[in-house]
């Protein structure tokens, strides 16, 4: 915990309602959605202006105090966890949306804007913010950029990085940088904006961003397909992508879907059962797009790649079909699951899953392994539910071994040890699975340039 003198200085910098030290605030703002850590920040501050962010960073450099950035706290790698007396800097009070430019199709958001608020602003102005995921109602734009958030439409629209046209950041030295200014073209040396995207608060704070917006999509069609063989999922991906403008290509196992169905909000989409399901979404750009989708469906059925399926006939049905995929994470939270988020080259996903399934069923026969994720990006979310018979600590120890298996296989497949959830605390010690010694040394050198006193989210990522 920081000394009373330092707390007094924080109170001098921020009005009373914008410094929190009560137990509830410390517990709430010291955590994100990663449930492995005990929160223990010293205080939480709520800046409202760039100058206040500069002031607290300069103070932290003078007093050698660690700062932890806090957005929507929906992260899954402990990137926003404060557990060693750090001061949490929350962007909850910086939620302005401004400078909308309908011709350039850009808009400026302060870091604390909720993702869904930006999506709604874009829709109200006839445009579309295409980075989307289940935590849209709580996550904040600053955190989405700091973790380069992915989600369910990456196969068409890419990660958050693709939509950042400009950033205002406060570096770990307290300098304010206005990066790229929202320009579509600017070839003037190193693009420092892209260093901050995905930096997880380790180089400085993102205080606002100019984001690009896309044209509003035409009406969307959603299909769910029952797929007996994992290897056939990639054939389906190829077949549907050849003929349709796919926005999304997700998969989930029967085991995962049963947890969603058990909650009773949505029902099984059709009679046919299979080990795996694909959910795909496409844009109806032509009058015959649905016919094309059904023709591809029939052709794939003849090949035996799918045994049943459904095409949404209404917006409500499309939403219900999406819930089969998007409700998985929430449905299994009570089981305190082991989670991992990795990626391998799309074409190698079936081989990877089969290899890992074989290891896990041999080593941990009573673990329930659930697979789902953005398979069109080669991105898998592995979740293992704690068996009732196993104490949480024993389960967590066993999962340390599971990590070793997962990451050594990811290394063998030349994949990524974190596809979209970032590195944070949870995966810091596995960075070398995907990044070389030279790369990690260079990342440390870059960190030292932007945050020479190491006050920015120390212990995360590196
Ligand atoms: C997803 C969300 C969190 C999880 O559902 O796509 O990124 O449970 C995940 O892995
Ligand atoms: Zn995901």
UniProtKB/TrEMBL annotation:
Gene Ontology biological-process annotations: respiratory electron transport chain
Keyword Oxidoreductase (UniProt): yes
Keywords: FAD, Flavoprotein, Oxidoreductase
Pfam families associated with the record: FAD-oxidase_C, FAD_binding_4
Cofactor(s), by name: FAD
Organism field: Pseudogulbenkiania ferrooxidans 2002
Chain ranges of the FAD-binding PCMH-type domain: 37-216
Annotated family: Belongs to the FAD-binding oxidoreductase/transferase type 4 family.
Example GO molecular function: oxidoreductase activity
PANTHER family the record matches: D-2-HYDROXYGLUTARATE DEHYDROGENASE, MITOCHONDRIAL
Protein name as catalogued: FAD linked oxidase domain protein
């Amino acid at each position: 915990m920081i000394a009373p003198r330092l707390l007094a200085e924080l109170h001098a910098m921020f009005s009373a309602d914008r410094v929190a030290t009560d137990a509830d605030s410390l517990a709430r703002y010291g955590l994100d959605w990663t449930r492995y850590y005990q929160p223990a920040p010293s205080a939480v501050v709520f800046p409202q202006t760039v100058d206040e962010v500069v002031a607290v960073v300069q103070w932290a450099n003078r007093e050698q105090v660690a700062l932890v950035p806090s957005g929507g706290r929906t992260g899954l790698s402990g990137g926003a966890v404060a557990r060693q007396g750090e001061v949490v800097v929350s962007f909850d009070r910086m939620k302005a949306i401004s400078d909308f430019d309908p011709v350039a199709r850009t808009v400026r958001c302060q870091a604390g804007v909720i993702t869904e608020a930006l999506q709604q602003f874009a829709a109200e102005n006839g445009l579309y913010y295409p980075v989307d995921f289940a935590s849209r109602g709580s996550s904040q734009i600053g955190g989405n950029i700091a973790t380069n958030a992915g989600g369910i439409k990456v196969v068409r629209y890419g990660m958050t990085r693709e939509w950042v046209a400009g950033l205002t950041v406060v570096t770990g030295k307290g300098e304010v940088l206005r990066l790229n200014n929202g320009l579509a073209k600017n070839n003037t040396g190193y693009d420092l904006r892209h260093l901050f995207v995905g930096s997880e608060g380790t180089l400085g704070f993102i205080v606002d961003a100019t984001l690009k917006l896309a044209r509003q999509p035409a009406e969307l069609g959603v299909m769910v397909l029952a797929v007996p063989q994992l290897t056939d999922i990639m054939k389906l991906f190829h077949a549907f992508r050849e003929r349709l403008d796919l926005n999304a290509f997700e998969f989930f196992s029967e085991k995962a879907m049963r947890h969603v169905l058990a909650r009773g909000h949505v029902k099984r989409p059709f009679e046919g059962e299979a080990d795996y399901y694909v959910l795909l979404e496409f844009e109806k750009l032509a009058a015959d797009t649905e016919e094309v989708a059904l023709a591809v469906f029939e052709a794939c059925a003849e090949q035996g790649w799918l045994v049943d399926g459904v095409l949404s006939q209404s917006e409500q049905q499309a939403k219900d079909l999406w819930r089969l995929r998007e409700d998985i994470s929430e449905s299994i939270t009570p089981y305190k699951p082991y989670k991992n988020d990795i990626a391998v080259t799309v074409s190698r996903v079936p081989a990877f899953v089969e290899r890992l399934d074989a290891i896990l069923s041999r080593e941990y026969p009573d673990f329930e392994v659930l697979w789902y994720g953005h398979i069109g990006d080669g991105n898998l979310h592995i979740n293992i539910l704690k068996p009732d018979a196993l104490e949480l600590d024993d389960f967590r120890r066993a999962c340390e071994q599971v990590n070793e298996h997962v990451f050594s296989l990811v290394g063998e497949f030349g994949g990524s040890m974190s596809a979209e959830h970032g590195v944070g605390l949870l995966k810091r010690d596995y960075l070398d699975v995907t990044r070389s010694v030279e790369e990690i040394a260079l990342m440390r050198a870059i960190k030292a340039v932007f945050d020479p006193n190491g006050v920015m989210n120390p212990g995360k990522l590196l």
